[in-house]
Amino acid sequence: MGWVQQGLADGSLPYNTSTALVHFVKVILRDEKEETMMLLVSPAVFRKFAEAYGDQATGGGDGPDTEATPGKLGMGIQMAFTQAGWHQPAGRGRNVHRFQVIRRGESGGSLLNGFLVTNPERFVNPVPPPNDRLRYWSQNVTVDKSEASAS
């Protein structure tokens, strides 16, 4: 998450734009409480990290991982991120959430997949305003916080 923090701080990792790999979004949890979370677009954000630093969980060392299987670059980083417990699981054994990109005129658009980072203020302060062009695909996160903290 240090790479995300630094990139957001220095502008090298834009957020809430049409090409951004990081967005801040409003979601409604099962308990009907609306929260702002950070959305990391997957698998693109993990691939970008792996291209720059290698596909090892430490993110340091010998640079890009040239040994990675094509199409699998970033999977090691994604696995380490998942195991860190910073995200809101999607339920039913899944970790990735879907958001719909809302076009002008409030009509639906394409879908965006990503990991929701809970309590983004741990990594970004102040937390930027949410992207009003992204809407949670089912409108509600299907798990409650007790399920997320049980892992």
UniProtKB/TrEMBL annotation:
SUPFAM superfamilies: Winged helix' DNA-binding domain. Residues 1-134 form the Putative conjugal transfer nickase/helicase TraI C-terminal domain. It comes from the Bacteria. Transmembrane segments: none annotated. This is Putative conjugal transfer nickase/helicase TraI C-terminal domain-containing protein. It comes from Parasulfuritortus cantonensis.
